[in-house]
Amino acid sequence: MQTPEFKGTHLFDRLCWAKENLEGVQSDYRVVYEDSVDECAKILVPDPNWMACALQGGILPPVWVYHELAKDEAQPDFKKHTRGYLLHQTEPVEAMTEEEAIEYLIMKDCPEQVWKTYNKGNRQTMVICKKEQLPQSREWRNSWKISQVAA
Amino acid sequence: MAGKIIADTLEHSTAGSLDTSYVVNGSNKVWARWNLSGTAALNDSFNTASLTDLGVGYSRITYSSAITDANYGITGICGEIAGGGNRVIGVYGNGGYNTTSSAYRSNNSSFAASDETYNSIALNGDLA
Fold first, then answer.
1. Alpha-carbon gap, residue B8 to B64, rounded angstroms
2. Could you report the predicted ipTM of this complex, rounded to two decimals?
């Protein structure tokens, strides 16, 4: 199905179109990351409807838009977004492969310090894996850490 | 978009009229249902980009279309698909609560964090 010409269309309207017209895609990919030495590993799971939008193209804004909004929100005098138009008026990104979509999602939803430095320290703090590679039982879930052998 | 109707008011023949801003402002802007048992996964959603499994009972939902500020309202329930009721889900502020995400703690009947099979939230607020 061809994505309509969504230039300048509110992102929410684009998502409404996607919900109505695209089948969700359950990705097998998971992103495991550690952002605190005192906490267990966290596992990022892509949303099926979001993944469908990413694979379709022409719906999602570029990831830098989210970074700009995050910068605004980090200001001490932040009250509300005044640059929401970036989500709606910036030209949507083209269709991605599933792997590219995961990279986009990492930059959108993982802490910046993780994806910028995950392989810089004495242990790797982020890995992309298939869900079958995760423990199949949640026993000791609060103690899970990334295996440095696997990483 | 094709089929666009621009209207400020909807009027019923007998029941009165409704300002369309009620519809725009009153609709859910995000909803999600997810499962924390086994390999955590989202069952279905709208305006959700990802789920993060933060540990036993803890999860974070991120949005695609941001909310204008963090003063939005959320309703949620959790429980077990088969069996146990008497569960409760609450906002987990330390897990990230802002205009593009919110985090939750699901509790069992003893109010201990618990990996429930049914977790769902719906969010009302203004879009950025």
1. 27
2. 0.95
